[in-house]
Structure formats: structure tokens, C-alpha cells
């Protein structure tokens, strides 16, 4: 495959990289997208898993003939950003995309507090701070909006708004110093100025600023305890708690290292729903900034010798609390003093100047609005650099009454038997009742009778890249990176990833009964029990041919085919996600238990992907706004 010159002529490339790339759903959509004068140039993808790397290399380097690089590295590794910069070789990146792993706050499956992956979005934003793209897209499950009663969503927005433009910091600090001279004590002024420096400085200067911050805090502590009896100040448990708590706060790096090691072990050992989990979580809470500060404040309140109504004690309390605030929360504290100074307008001018990105808030995107035969909701945070237009929505590409149905998407694949592998397209099962659902459409789903329109199944077979690429390298399957490097390929086929498991007569009867009921409800379970066909599975979903599928998941037997009454194949799942048939999912078809986390088999690649047609709509929206 090679890029067509007639497509490239007159168009400017917009560079992008895809983090947490997985199978490449976002990559597919961005490569499909274009306007009359722009298209996306795929520079680099990254994920921690080798099967993701294998799938990308086969698709984009071999099939597409691109020189896109792949970085297999944990984004939380201290080596990630240095390696990323080395791979980029100084190339400017216009757009960064990525969806930090969402299992710990997905609506599907058990939530895990203190999961190692909960901090992935902070590492993602570290990349944004380093590369400073014009736009970035962070996508995730809708459950993120309600995680921790919305606090996680708010934390994301605060962190995005805390990415700063370094060039405007000196002017802001000058204003801040002048304003606080008139509206705050010297102690508060020093703490606030130093807190801002902690948040905006590089690592070395931030450590120095942190030491200075606690020097101010400890000096204030000594001042307010100087009036207390010496023996009491040395023996009282409240005073000891405050003193030791301040020491713990000063040792942030040491506590973070301990917490990271504990969280890593908790994740690796799958500590959850057992007698260990509460102990692990309690310890992690105990050494967290907020917990330490809460304990210090309780000790202050419990110490009767303190005059808690005095300004010295009140300011001491407030500046201890300030230490754990984000930069955005610090700005809210600064605003209180700006009100006293009557300079809120000037403060806003400075804040607008130093905030590098704007974000309108979370955008909820429903995949079926973009020509995908699936009702999959994703939450998008689109960060817009301050010199770019704000994006607050991704317009649908289909009307509500013309959405692509399940029957339209997979009817031509309904020829495979039990325990079979099909490598050629066969004669499909025709269900007359649903044939009127098959309509010709434009590439992103809008119903059309034009000569360039095709059915969804034909688009899947033809591919959605004909405008940009010529097809020289045919799709192929390879089991591993080692086989790829040794040129050990399977024989070329017309159809890939279309294989069913060999199901026993009991399993086939069970699935047929569930399909007859239409839902896996109490009545259904009772009938299965009477027949000795009960299952330990918590959920089965019978696909409705006339509608859209629910969110595609990573377990093949969660869905039951509407007519064949069997589990879905990888290719059928890929169709529901809007992947072209030429996209071959590499590696193992499926694995069991915890191996799915490390090996990332084909079903997991498909189930975790962003639907390419939805990604295409996001990409086209960015191309229409980017300067």
C-alpha cells in the first residue's frame, strides 16, 4: 500500500501520535480523516503490550507502507518521555490522542480503588506538558464522570487547566507579589508565591521551592508554639502529631516511592475482594497528603492551648491545607486575596495568559451517532491550546433515524458453523424480515443513493482508505513479533479473524434458550436450571438485528448471535466496532483468566478499541478547527 499523490497534493499534513494505542481504533479514524486542505500524518503510536505493537506494525508499516514508529513502554516509567523525545527526533506534534486504561473505573466490571492505572491520566498530561500540541484528545468510559462522585472528572479538568505557559509566569509572579503585599501577611505571601513556584517550576527548582515552603510553615509553627510551656510542647500528642505530620509532608518523594511500590504490588498480586485489600488501602490512605493534612488539622483543633481564633493559627491551618492543592485550586485561593485588592480583572488577564489549554468540559460521544452499529458511549476531553479554536462538540454524522443496525453490519458473515475457521466469504443467511434494513450509505453512515455510496458490509470489504492509499500489500496474519521478524507468515486469505469455538450440545442448547427468551432474566435462568443447563456467567446479551449492539466487550461469549445462537467471532465484533475487514487482529485469538491482561488477545484488542468511525468524526472536527 502507498499514499496517493493526488490525495496529498495541496494538503498540509497535521502530525499526530496515539498513546495507549491498543489495536489502533483512533489511529484508523485519524488516518481516514481529511479536509480539502489538511490530513493527518501518523508519527508514532505507543502501548505497553507487544501484541499491540505487532498489530500496528503489520497494519501501518507493512500494509500501509508508513514509517510510523511504535514505542513499547510503560508511560509511568521515568524513561518514557526521554525515549519518546528520542523517537520523535525533534518533530513537532500537532495532536496527541490517548485513552488511559479505564478498567478501574469502567461501568463494566469491578471498580478498584488505588488501582495503579488510576494515575495514568496524570502521566498522559505530563506528555502534553512536554510536547505542547495544538490539540489533545483524552477519551474514556462514561463511568469516569461519576467516579468518586464526580471528583475524578473535576480532577482531570483542574489538571488540564493547570498546564501553564512558562513565558507568562514572570509577569504573573510580579503581579502576585505586588497584590499580596497589600492584601496578605508576609507569611501567607511567601507561602502562596512558593506554592505557585512548586507547581510551575522544573523538577529541580520545584524541590527547592518545596523545601522553602516547609521552612515558612515550620517557622510559623515555632512562632505559635513559643508561648506554650516548653515541657508541654515536647510531650503533648497533638504537638507531636503536627510536628511529625509536617515532616511526613516534607518527605513527599519518599512517600510517593513507598506508595508506588505498594500500589504496584497490589496490582500485580490482584489484591481485591479479599482480606488483604482493606489493609493495603488503609495504609495508602494513611500516607496520602490529604490524610496527613487532615490529621494535622485535627491535632491543631484538639490542642486547647492554641487560640484557634487568632490570625496566626488560622493562617497556619490554611497554608498547611494549601500544600496539597492543585494549581487551579491555588488560583481560587489567590482570587480571595485579589478581591480584597480589587484586582480580580487583572488576575483573570494573567490567568488567561498562563493557562496553556482550554477545555469546554467533558463531551459525551455516542458511537452510533457516527455510523457505528453500536451504542458505545465515550467521554472526550479535548484540550485546545490557547492559540486554537475551542472545540465543545463532535457533530453527529448520521440522523437518529438512519443509524446502522446489527443486521446491516454482520449479515454477510452469517455462514460460519460450529468450531469452524472461514477464510473466504460465503453465502449468507437471508432473513427476509430484516432485508429492508440494508441500505446504501456514505462512508460515515449517512443514507445515500449516490454512485459512491455502498452498504455497510461493502464498505467493510472495500475498506475506507481508497481515497488515500493504493493497496500493494495484502492483509496478512502473523502470530508473534518473532515470526514477523523471521518472515514466518500464514498463507494470504480473503477473510481474517472469522473463527468460532467448538461448542458442546449443552452450550448450544443453553444459548438457544437464552436467545428464545431474548434476555438473560430470572425466567430464563429458571428454565435453564430445570434443564440442568445453568451457567455461572453473570451476563449474556442477545443481539437485536434491527437495532445497535450494546458496548462491545472483550469476552466473546457475552454476546449471542441473533440468528446462529452462538458466540461472536473476532471479525463480527470488529464489524460492530466499524473496523475494515482488511484490519487483521494479530496474535492469539483468546486467552484465559489473568493472561488477558498481559497477552492482549484479539478479542481484547477489539473490545477495548475506540470505534474507527467515531475516531474519524473526532479527527475531522479537529481538522476543521486547527490553525
Q: Biggest sheet, in brief?
A: 8 strands, mixed
Question: Got a strand count?
Answer: 12
Note the overall shape.
globular
Overall structural class, as computed from helix and strand content, comes to: alpha/beta
**Percentage of helical residues?**
40-55%
Percentage beta strand: 5-15%
Mean pLDDT: 91
Q: Kindly, what is the distance between the CA atoms of the first and last residues, rounded to a whole number of angstroms?
A: 30 Å
Low-confidence stretches: 102-117
Tally of individual helices: 26
Radius of gyration based on Cα positions = 28 Å
Task: Explain how this protein is built.
The protein is an alpha/beta fold and 627 residues long. The protein has 26 helices and twelve strands. The strands form three sheets. Strands 2, 3, 4, 5, 6, 7, 8 and 9 form an eight-stranded mixed β-sheet that branches. Strands 1-10 form a two-stranded antiparallel sheet. A two-stranded parallel ribbon has the order 11-12. α2 packs across α26, α7 runs antiparallel to α17 and α11 (237-250) packs antiparallel against α14 (289-302). The model is unreliable at 102-117 (pLDDT under 50).
Keyword list:
alpha/beta, 8-stranded mixed beta sheet, 627 residues, globular, 12 strands, two-stranded antiparallel ribbon
Topology of this structure?
Layout (H helix, E strand, L loop, with lengths): L1 E2 L1 H4 L3 E8 L5 H8 L5 E10 L2 H14 L5 E4 L7 H9 L6 E4 L21 H12 L3 E7 L9 H11 L7 H15 L2 H15 L2 H23 L4 H6 L1 H14 L1 H17 L8 H10 L2 H14 L8 H12 L4 H15 L2 H11 L2 E2 L4 E4 L10 E9 L20 H5 L45 H7 L6 E2 L10 H5 L19 H13 L4 H9 L10 E2 L16 E2 L9 H8 L17 H5 L2 H6 L4 H14 L2
Parallel strand pairs: 2-3, 2-5, 3-4, 5-6, 11-12
Antiparallel strand pairs: 1-10, 6-9, 7-9, 8-9
Helix pairs in contact: 2-26, 7-8, 7-16, 7-17, 8-9, 9-15, 11-14, 21-22
Amino acid at each position: 500500500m502507498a499514499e496517493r499523490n493526488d490525495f496529498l497534493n495541496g494538503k498540509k499534513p497535521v502530525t499526530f501520535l496515539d498513546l495507549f494505542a491498543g489495536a489502533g481504533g483512533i489511529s484508523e479514524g485519524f488516518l481516514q480523516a481529511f479536509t480539502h486542505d489538511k490530513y493527518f500524518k501518523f508519527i508514532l503510536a505507543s502501548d505497553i503490550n507487544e501484541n499491540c505493537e505487532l498489530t500496528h506494525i503489520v497494519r501501518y508499516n507493512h500494509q500501509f507502507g508508513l514509517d510510523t514508529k511504535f514505542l513499547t513502554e510503560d508511560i509511568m516509567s521515568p524513561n518514557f518521555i526521554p525515549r519518546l523525545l528520542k523517537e520523535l527526533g525533534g518533530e513537532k506534534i500537532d495532536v496527541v490522542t490517548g485513552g488511559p486504561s479505564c478498567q478501574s473505573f469502567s461501568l463494566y466490571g469491578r471498580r478498584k480503588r488505588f488501582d495503579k492505572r488510576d494515575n495514568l491520566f496524570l502521566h498522559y498530561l505530563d506528555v502534553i506538558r512536554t510536547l505542547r500540541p495544538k490539540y489533545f484528545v483524552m477519551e474514556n468510559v462514561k463511568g469516569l464522570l461519576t467516579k468518586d462522585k464526580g471528583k475524578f472528572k473535576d480532577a482531570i479538568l483542574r489538571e488540564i487547566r493547570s498546564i501553564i505557559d512558562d513565558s507568562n509566569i514572570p509577569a504573573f509572579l510580579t503581579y502576585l507579589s505586588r497584590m499580596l503585599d497589600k492584601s496578605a501577611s508576609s507569611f501567607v505571601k511567601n507561602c502562596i508565591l512558593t506554592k505557585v513556584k512548586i507547581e510551575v517550576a522544573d523538577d529541580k527548582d520545584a524541590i527547592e521551592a518545596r523545601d522553602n515552603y516547609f521552612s515558612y510553615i515550620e517557622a510559623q509553627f515555632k512562632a505559635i508554639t513559643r508561648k506554650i510551656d516548653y515541657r508541654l510542647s515536647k510531650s503533648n500528642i497533638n504537638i507531636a502529631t503536627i510536628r511529625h505530620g509536617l515532616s511526613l509532608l516534607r518527605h513527599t518523594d519518599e512517600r510517593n516511592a513507598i506508595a508506588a511500590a505498594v500500589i504496584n504490588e497490589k496490582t500485580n498480586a490482584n489484591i481485591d475482594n479479599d482480606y488483604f485489600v482493606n489493609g493495603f488501602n488503609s495504609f495508602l490512605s494513611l500516607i496520602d497528603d490529604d490524610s496527613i493534612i487532615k490529621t494535622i488539622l485535627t491535632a491543631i483543633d484538639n490542642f486547647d492551648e492554641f487560640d484557634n481564633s487568632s490570625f496566626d493559627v488560622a493562617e497556619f491551618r490554611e497554608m498547611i491545607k494549601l500544600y496539597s492543592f492543585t494549581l487551579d485550586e491555588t488560583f481560587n485561593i489567590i482570587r480571595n486575596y485579589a478581591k480584597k485588592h480589587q484586582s480580580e480583572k487583572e488576575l483573570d488577564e494573567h490567568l488567561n495568559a498562563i493557562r496553556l489549554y482550554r477545555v469546554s468540559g467533558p463531551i459525551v460521544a455516542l458511537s452510533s451517532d457516527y455510523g457505528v452499529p453500536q451504542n458505545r458511549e465515550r467521554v472526550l476531553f479535548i484540550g485546545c491550546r490557547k492559540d486554537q479554536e475551542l472545540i465543545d462538540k463532535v457533530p453527529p454524522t448520521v440522523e437518529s433515524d438512519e443509524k446502522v443496525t446489527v443486521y446491516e453490519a454482520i449479515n454477510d458473515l452469517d455462514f460460519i458453523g460450529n468450531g469452524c475457521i472461514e477464510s473466504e466469504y460465503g453465502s449468507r443467511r437471508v432473513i427476509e424480515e430484516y432485508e429492508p434494513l440494508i441500505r446504501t450509505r456514505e462512508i460515515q453512515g449517512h443514507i445515500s443513493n449516490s454512485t459512491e455510496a455502498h452498504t455497510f458490509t461493502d464498505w467493510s470489504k472495500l475498506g475506507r482508505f481508497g481515497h488515500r492509499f493504493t493497496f500493494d500489500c495484502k492483509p496478512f496474519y502473523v502470530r508473534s513479533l518473532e515470526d514477523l521478524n523471521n518472515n514466518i507468515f500464514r498463507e494470504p486469505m480473503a477473510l481474517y479473524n472469522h473463527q468460532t469455538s467448538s461448542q458442546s450440545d449443552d452450550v448450544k442448547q443453553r444459548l438457544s434458550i437464552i436467545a428464545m427468551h431474548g434476555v438473560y432474566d430470572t425466567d430464563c435462568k429458571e428454565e435453564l436450571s430445570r434443564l440442568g443447563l445453568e451457567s455461572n456467567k453473570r451476563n449474556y446479551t442477545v443481539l437485536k438485528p434491527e437495532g445497535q449492539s450494546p458496548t462491545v466487550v472483550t469476552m466473546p461469549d457475552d454476546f449471542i448471535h441473533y440468528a446462529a445462537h452462538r458466540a461472536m467471532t473476532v471479525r463480527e465484533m470488529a464489524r460492530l466496532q466499524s473496523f475494515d475487514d482488511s484490519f487483521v487482529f494479530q496474535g492469539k485469538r483468546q486467552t484465559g483468566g489473568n493472561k488477558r491482561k498481559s497477552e492482549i488477545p484479539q478479542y481484547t484488542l477489539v473490545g477495548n478499541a475506540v470505534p474507527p468511525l467515531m475516531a474519524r468524526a473526532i479527527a475531522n472536527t479537529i481538522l476543521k478547527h486547527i490553525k
